[in-house]
Amino acid sequence: MRKVIYIALLLFSTLVVGQQKKIEKLFLEINNTQLSVVERDAYFILEMKSNAGKKLIRKGKILTPELINLLNDPKKGLIAHYILSQIWKNNWGESSCGGNEKPNLNEITYIIYNGLRIEINPDKSVYSENKYLTERKSDWENFQKMVTN
Known about the structure:
Blueprint: H1 2-29, E1 35-40, E2 43-48, H2 51-59, H3 64-69, H4 77-87, E3 96-97, E4 110-113, E5 116-120, E6 126-127, H5 130-148
Antiparallel strand pairs: 1-2, 3-4, 4-5, 5-6
């Protein structure tokens, strides 16, 4: 009986380690350059072109602490915010754009996505300044405390 338990524990620990390595690989594959802004009729959306990011969204809420930790990373903070926002989208309001009520994408320089100011480059790539990411990191940390209590 001990051998069966030992083998079961060994298999389980191997699966857990393997799963963690897959998740770590996904985190290595995401970066802010995989996001851009796209015009849709009278509104704008952030578009993510990242299979790794989509897999992290499917993994869900369990990844919240790791994603929050990435918010200060200049190369991954913006996409981490996007992934968190997608995971928790039922708990947040709609995103909004800066500028006029029906602005032309060529006329605006930023959008607000789930409270984060996101700057738009002329090529429609996006970035966010560290001060805005730091503010949102604090908000995400408070949100996490609220939903875990």
